Amino acid sequence: MLRLSVAALTRIAVADGTAQVASEPGEPLVQGIRPTEAVYLSGAGSPDLMLEGRAERRPDPAQRLDGWYQQVVRTVPGTALLYHSTRHQSRLVELAEGETLDTALLAARLHYQQLSWGPEDGSTELRILQQAFGPGISEEAAIWTGTGVQPDGVLVLRRTEGRRTWLASFRVRFTLPAGTVSVVPVETIEVPYAYGRKLTPASPLPTDNPFGHGTA
Prior knowledge:
This protein is mainly beta and 216 residues long. The protein has one helix at 103-111, and strands spanning 2-3, 20-22, 36-39, 49-60, 65-75, 79-85, 90-92, 115-117, 125-133, 145-146, 155-161, 164-176, 181-191.
C-alpha cells in the first residue's frame, strides 16, 4: 500500500544531531513489512525517496529463524546521493552538524573528483533497520535493531525532473526498539540543470586545413 504523504517529515525534529531516538513510552512496534511511503524533499512534484519494507528470507534451522524484515530508504529515478570519491573506497557524504549546502564548494569538489554522485536510476538503497522473524523468535526478541550500516549524519541528494535540478540535505531518523523510520528535511536549493554533471568536452580544434590542402 502506497501512502502519498511526506513520510512524517516533521514528526521528529532535528534536535540532538543523531539518527537514533529512543522510542516513546507506549509507542507501538512496527509490525512486519512496513507500508511503502513517499518522501518529498524538493520541488519536483513527485517523490524524491521512498521508505519501504521487505522480508529477506535467510533460514537458520538451528535457531528456527526464517529471515529478517527490513526497512530501507530507496532512491527513485532522477535522484542521486552524494558520495566521497577516493581511490580505495566510496562512502556517503555526511554533513557536519549545522553545515549548510555550499553550492560553490560542492561544485569545486565534484570538479576535482573528490566527490561524486551515485546512480540516479533508482537502484540505491540505504538499509536502516532489521527485525528477525520465524517460529523460534519470541515476542520479546521481535524488536527492531540497526543494520550496522545505517547512516547517522545529514545526507545530500540531487534531484532532476525535466530541465530542473535541486539539491536537498536530509537525515534518516529511527526509533528503537519500536522501529519508526522517518526522513527529516534540512535544506533544499534549486540549482542550474547541469549542476554537478560531467559535461561532454568540446571537440578539439582541427589541426589540418579544413579545405584539404594541409597546414601552412
